[in-house]
Amino acid sequence: MANTFDLEIITPSKKFYGGEVEHVICKTGEGYEGFLANHTWTCKLLDAGKLRFREKGASENDWREASAAGGFIDIKDSVIIYTDAVEWDMGHEKRKSRLAKK
């Protein structure tokens, strides 16, 4: 079984992200929940909050982070997050940019 899955984050105006990931954490009505490859198929409402995911091959502590305005997550063979608005956590992006320049 694969340890990765395709993730898409979609807003009404664009595809915000698409790629292969190992883990997704988002805020549902029950609190923050994590999803891994081969998770049981489900669809859940999302509350506004942080959205974190670790891309394929990233180190254990290297997470991409964004803030989402709620929406829902559809989990099947791949994961699609539909949200009205989402933006990158700039602290993470600045750190990543700094590391790329080294």
| Model regions low in confidence, pLDDT < 50 over at least 5 residues | none
Give the helix level as a range of percent. 10-25%
Strands ordered across the widest β-sheet: 1-2-4-5-6
Mean pLDDT: 90
How many strands appear in the DSSP assignment? Answer: 7
Major beta sheet summary: 5 strands, mixed, barrel
Apparent shape? globular
Beta-strand content bin: over 45%
Task: Please report the distance between the alpha carbons of the first and last residues.
Answer: 36 Å
Overall structural class, as computed from helix and strand content, comes to mainly beta
Rounded to an integer in angstroms, the radius of gyration calculated over CA atoms is 13 Å
Report the order of strands and helices: EEEEEEEH
Number of helices: 1
Outline the structure in words:
- By secondary structure, the protein is mainly β.
- The chain contains 1 helix and 7 strands.
- It has a 5-stranded mixed beta barrel.
- The longest helix has 12 residues, at 90-101.
Brief overview, please?
The chain has 102 residues and is mostly beta strands. The protein has 1 helix and 7 strands.
Write the layout of secondary structure elements.
Elements: E1 5-10, E2 15-28, E3 31-36, E4 42-55, E5 64-75, E6 79-83, E7 86-88, H1 90-101
Parallel strand pairs: 1-6
Antiparallel strand pairs: 1-2, 2-3, 2-4, 4-5, 5-6, 5-7
List keywords for this structure.
single chain, 102 residues, mainly beta, 5-stranded mixed barrel, 12% helix
